[in-house]
Amino acid sequence: MTQKVPPLLLLGLLAGALLAPASPVRADSLDRAALVQELCGDAGAMGKAGATLVTTAAAGSAEDREWAAPLARAAIDRKLACDEAGAMLDEGGLDAVTRAPRAAAGTPRSPLLSLKNRPVFELADAAFALRGSPAVAQRTAALKTLERRPALIPEGLLEGAAAAESDAGLREQIDTLSQTAALNASDPAARIRAIGRVAENPSRRALTRISALTADPAYAANPDFRTAVDDATRRIERGIAIGDTLATLYNGLSFASILFMAAIGLAIIFGLMGVINLAQGELIMIGAYVTWLVQQGLRHAAPGLLDWYLVLAIPVAFLATAGIGIALETLLLRHLYKRPLMSLLATWAVSLFLVNIVRVVFGTQNMQFETPFYVSGGVPVIGDFIFTWNRMFAIAFAAVTLALTWLVVRKTPLGLNIRAVTQNRDMAACIGIPTRRVDMMAFGLGSGLAGLAGLALSPIYSVNPQMGQNFIIDSFMVVVLGGVGTIAGTVVAALGIGQINVLIEPLWGAVAAKVIVLLMIIAFLQWRPEGLFAVKGRRK
Amino acid sequence: MSRTSANLPFTLLIAVIVVAAGAMPALSGTSFELSRYLTNAIGQLAAFAVLAISLDLIWGYLGILSLGHGLFFAIGGYVMAMYLLKHSFVVTGTVPDFLQFMGWKEFPFYWAGFDVFPYAFAVAVAVTLLISGIFGYVSFRSRVGGVYFAIITQALVYVAMLLMFRNDTGFGGNNGMTGFSVLFGWPMGTSGMITALAVASLLALALVLVACRRLVGSRFGALMLATRDDETRLRTLGYETLRLKLIVWCLSALIAMLAGMLYVPQVGIINPRVLSPELSLEIAVWVAIGGRGHLVGAVIGALLVNAVKFWLSSAAPDIWPFILSGLIVLVVLVFPNGLMDLAKLRLTRPMGPRRMATELEEARP
């Protein structure tokens, strides 16, 4: 099925092989009169006519197909009336050959299809319908009929149908069937070519299809066939392995992106003030809820912009969570400046409050999010790995956040102050840096980043009042592992923990992944108690 | 100095506990008899008070905040539940729910011998010491402290919770373990048993209180306070603070384990929720509200918070989290030493025990 056989040659072959010598066929087109004559003949002649119809459906010219299509249907429905002048189609009273109206000559007789011939005619009918029917539903139904007997489908039919098909979903189904049909073709060379083509797109489905061929008689009998199957199996397995690895890395990368965004704020605040914000997870949750609110607002105010809510929510989510963070710092943490353990409890109280206030206001159910076009679907790459846009969105978002955070910390006066206070608070105060103001701004920055994390994960994870708790302990571990107040440490630790989690998960499960990550971190702290990229300084 | 200033409240508290423990069985049958619900609640409160003391010992007296003490509480609770189930199985032949749920024919091999209480108790002690010992050693050796230590212990208890939520571990999975029918050969759920458990919990509380009191009043206790206030100086003076911290840490874990063993027969169920980070954080809240660094404060804080929680969880369950968070903020901002500040305010004593100058040290890397 891989190569188009020229119709000329094909019909020439047909003339010799299929049609009896008594009914010569013009090499370049269908002998319509002879076909009709056969249709009115005995079971053997009708069988030949059926085969001709199938071949016409696969390789005939457009006019021939259009002409022959009603014949198959009429034969099945017994609407073909054979009389002395040839045959007539009952519908409209047309002559079967010329399609001109005429009266019946003599007593018409409707030939009955034998049990053996019936499937051939049904196949021909479905083949005509698939190629010529105007309605998608009819073409789909025709494809279903063809799927029942993939071995009988003539070469060229499905390719022709797929090329002309306008409906993408149906075209895909046709392609799938076309591969199956080719694998089950009678010509060994065609089968081997088909195997090669299936192996070009490795996936678990392709593997199932190819490995089913090892049970085929040809596998034992034909060494070429066996080699082809074995080769294809190897190629597909390699493709699947590569695809799975890429998929794992990709998932790990997207998980790491979320972790990074959750943890970078924590790390900055911890480095600066020695405070771990236990409400960071809830700020993520608030960010996601703000995104949802923006979506609902757009739905009412500007439905045309609804698709862009993820983008429009960026400043809103950042400012809302940054505002909460600044309020938290001003009202609570400022007074706990020298008591970090108490500030741990205080931020927990805030997290408790936020979870429950959201629960009271919005309920505990998952929030419904629209899926804009830029985060839906994906590109199949290799094997079963699909490069999905929603995860890509999170990754790209984290990359941009990383770049911006780096710019803020490295290139702005605020960042300079943050670094100065992180290194030595008292000295920074001495040279006139307003340390309390820096604390407040840094806390706002860190909280705003958590809100952005919530925005980025709303297309991937379910959004409910408890969602923050799923990330918070992992992001603590990122801070512990990465060290205090360094962006590079946070990036490396987030990548490491994200990847290790998804690498171990398929082997021993999600729980084991968490256990192992925790044990590794505890062991790691033996070696470097201050984290990966600790700022050099006196150890207390 | 701290001993004299807190002597009166301590004596009073012990007296109240002992009198309550004596009065409950004495009053049974009379018209002053407490309801079963109240008796049971008192017993549970006593178990929580023991748990609060265990955390106060390391947080209040050593300056190490653990946000994972639920882990040791759960070890005690789970071992007790295993004992109760195995014991019930041996006595009455009741097959535990979780075995039927998992479709298992018999107990996993590590359940062997759990019908003998001394063995179960020894296992609980061994497991607690093993986990607290190893974790404490590696943490204190690399001088992980302060906020770092707190969040690593929180991760520890969180991971343990995930582990216990699995059904194939043989510890009841997410349904936990319940359906205890026999304790030491006596049927559970009778009035007598409820009273007995409550009395036992109260007596255990009194015992733990007195023992801890003696410990913190001793020379060892002075070293603990010194470690809390300035560990570097103590090390410079030649004291081995690693061993000291490790001993107190393991002791604290054992007390928490004991609280778990007292708690489970009284509630009649254990499930992985006792391992949720929230419970462990709540213990710290009890201690903070009562006033850390005071054994009496920890007990009163645990009793007070849990009494309010018991009451509210039936009256208005939705507002409890708001009240709790409000309480925390209040304590943290206005009464840094918890109820002890209130007491001092009223009695107009000079600032009694040494001020908490502990935390600045810990979290400055």
Automatic annotation (TrEMBL), chain A:
Keyword tags: Amino-acid transport, Cell membrane, Membrane, Signal, Transmembrane, Transmembrane helix, Transport
Membrane topology, as annotated: Multi-pass membrane protein
Keyword Repressor part of the UniProt annotation: no
Pfam families (UniProt xref): BPD_transp_2
Family the entry assigns: Belongs to the binding-protein-dependent transport system permease family. LivHM subfamily.
Localization per Swiss-Prot or TrEMBL: Cell membrane
Keyword hit for NAD: no
Transmembrane segments: 255-276, 283-302, 308-328, 340-362, 392-409, 442-463, 475-495, 507-527
Protein's organism: Ancylobacter koreensis
Gene name of the record: urtB
Protein name, UniProt field: Urea ABC transporter permease subunit UrtB
UniProt feature coiled coil, ranges: none
Extent of the signal sequence: 1-27
From TrEMBL, chain B:
Keywords: Cell membrane, Membrane, Transmembrane, Transmembrane helix
Top-level division of the source organism's lineage: Bacteria
One Pfam family matching this protein: BPD_transp_2
Main location: membrane
Residues making up the signal peptide according to the UniProt record: none
Location of the protein in the cell: Cell membrane
Transmembrane segments: 45-64, 71-96, 116-140, 147-165, 185-210, 242-263, 283-307, 319-339
Recorded topology in the membrane: Multi-pass membrane protein
Protein name, as recorded: Urea ABC transporter permease subunit UrtC
Gene from which this protein is expressed: urtC
